Write the structure tokens for this entry.
Amino acid sequence: MIRELTSFFVTAFSLIYIYQVYRLASNPGTYSQYLDTVRSPAMISFSIVALGFTLFHSVTWFYLIGKIQPIKIGRKKTSPLLALGINTVFLVIISFAVLQLFIVGK
Amino acid sequence: MSTVARFHALLWGVFSLGGFIAAFFLPILIYINNIAYPLGLWPVTSKDPTRLLVINQTVSTLFVFAAVGGSLFHGIFRLSATLAELGLKKQEAKITALGYAIIAVGLLALGYYLWLLSPNIIPGLAPPWSK
């Protein structure tokens, strides 16, 4: 059930972010007011919970993929735990790449 | 395979792709935009991350579109199924229709506003108001 609940936070954050992009594009002058909302304790608390649920989605999704579609290497099949491990490494690499390419030093 | 069955399979395929996108791309977007920036955590940025990502930036704008659009599709698709399982089976058709409507409006709005902010994401086709 917790796994299903992750979809609520994934959806909510996506919609909130679309609203943020809308605010930035439609009225850059009042966008700073919206950023005050982003900095509010309520929004930060929601975001921390949303991040927790999203990471839970990541972990369960990686495990599930390893279970549904194991890769055959020789006679052996990869285990869901191996898929979880490999994909978690990819998650870390992708996250660092996004930060380095688009954020750090800009 | 009938057209409806093919379309249904396609939707499940996009749902699965959205699951990967949400798993790989969404955590870092939530962290950098809604936690690190307001709390001043690493990596501290001078501008808000959304400005850095989507104003006149081609690759990072496409990243935002994929991350948010894919997550929206996956999230709503899964949420609709969950609501149906939670006792709203009779309302399943309405919930599904509403879900697809939100996905369509959300994706169109996201694409449109990102195009406004980064007109170069569609080479050779600038928004009409920029002329």
Summary: Chain A has one domain: 2-103. The first helix of chain A runs from residue 2 to 26.
